[in-house]
Write a structure and sequence with these properties.
The chain is an alpha+beta fold. It has three domains: 46 residues, Alpha-Beta Plaits; 204 residues, no CATH class; 47 residues. 32% of the residues lie in helices and 20% in strands. The protein is built from 13 helices and 13 strands. An eight-stranded mixed sheet has the order 5-4-6-7-11-12-3-13, with helices on both faces. Helix 12 runs antiparallel to helix 13. The chain starts with 14 loop residues before the first helix and ends with a helix. The model has no long low-confidence stretch (mean pLDDT 94). It binds flavin-adenine dinucleotide and iron/sulfur cluster (3 copies). Flavin-adenine dinucleotide binds next to helix 4, strand 4, strand 6 and strand 11.
Length: 391
Amino acid sequence: MITIKEKKDCCGCSACATICTHHALIMKADKSGFLYPVVNKKKCTNCGLCEKVCPILHENEKRTPTYSYAIKNNDDEIRKKSSSGGLFPIIAEKTIEAGGIVYGASFDKQWNVKHIGITRKEDLHLLQGSKYVQSNTVGIYKDIKQKLQEGINVLFTGTPCQVAGLNCYLQKKYKNLTTIDFICHGVPSPKIWNDYLSEVISLYKLPIANIDFRNKKTGWKDYNFVINFVDSSGVCKKTADMVCQHQDNIYMKLFLDNYILRPSCHSCRFRNGKGGSNYTLGDYWGIQNYNVEFDDDRGISLFLGYDNPNSIPLYIRQHCTSIETPVEFAIKANPSFSKDWPQNRYYQLFFFLHNNFSLNIKNSFSICLNINKIANRLSSLKALNSIRKRG
Ligand SMILES: Cc1cc2nc3c(=O)[nH]c(=O)nc-3n(C[C@H](O)[C@H](O)[C@H](O)COP(=O)(O)OP(=O)(O)OC[C@H]3O[C@@H](n4cnc5c(N)ncnc54)[C@H](O)[C@@H]3O)c2cc1C
Ligand code: SF4
Ligand code: SF4
Ligand code: SF4
């Protein structure tokens, strides 16, 4: 049976809970809001299936992509809604047109992030756009297996660990399954996301109509974090917007400065192509240093493949503008492909203040920032003193 000795040894994919037919294993959130498996020893028969499907216990080999493209969707409206160059919707559309089903991350009614399957093009917008929260995949792998066994084409998109979890759960290759992961910085805590939203709602006193983590109104690189609200009469009309440059938004700072990532993201076993997906997508950061004309600051996707370099699907060429780029350049420009981000030194303090003293997100974060400022000043003073002593 699965035992998690250290938090970093579980990415929360839920393959173990899904395989356990004895209902002895459930996914439960810890104090930080991340899901971990919990075993009911009375029900467990020690069959070992949960260990067999755990992607952390069965790590894949490193893979170097065989090709890399910079790609932008020719439809500007689609590209606007997507976080990068709008490549995902092209591949998803193709799957749906062929009668298939597309799985990806969507918001639910309470703005939690979870995986869903869609079969209609009109619903594609639900999956478009990066949601910087760990998506809940509980139950999804079982659904996918059923569709695959029925012969339905399936496209699964998710983090590299979610793709690895799915492949481990399935235990065999299916010709009708395509998997896409993305270059992954790491996933933030669903609890902190919930608490942050509660604080926003109590400030604006209006229900939320839409959330866009990567609004491109001021550009793809200088993107905004935007929340739209519905008016107080309950009519779904956008009455007030919360628009912040991503560098100025507390939640985005907590994410990008590595205060609230899942512990497994700091020692990720799925970088370097180890997720095992067919394709890897990403933002093509640094494309301006390779081809300045290609970068219109409206979003460029990075497309990495691991198969025959000439096999980039024809429908992508038909709906997108693309240029081939050296794989080494693409990977170097996007460090998350191979590099872990270290946990912020105030990670523990942030969660301690927020969980134990019921301090809101803003105050917990500002205490961490102030302590950091004092620590930096003290270390500058110390350095100055030692220079003086030496002089
Ligand atoms: C948490 C997170 C961290 C990321 N880190 C990096 C990074 O460091 N470097 C980089 O280049 N790119 C990163 N990306 C990927 C990037 O932001 C884009 O999602 C990707 O390039 C696809 O863009 P697109 O325009 O083709 O697709 P879009 O149309 O924007 O579609 C978004 C796709 O991402 C999936 N998705 C969205 N949110 C989640 C989620 N929470 N969990 C699982 N799947 C999700 C959707 O299912 C969909 O397939 C990250 C994405 C996420 C969600
Ligand atoms: S060992 Fe078998 S019964 Fe026990 S938790 Fe794992 S899958 Fe369930
Ligand atoms: S990584 Fe996935 S399969 Fe392994 S213990 Fe965690 S949730 Fe279960
Ligand atoms: S950084 Fe690694 S462990 Fe974390 S979500 Fe991404 S793939 Fe999973």
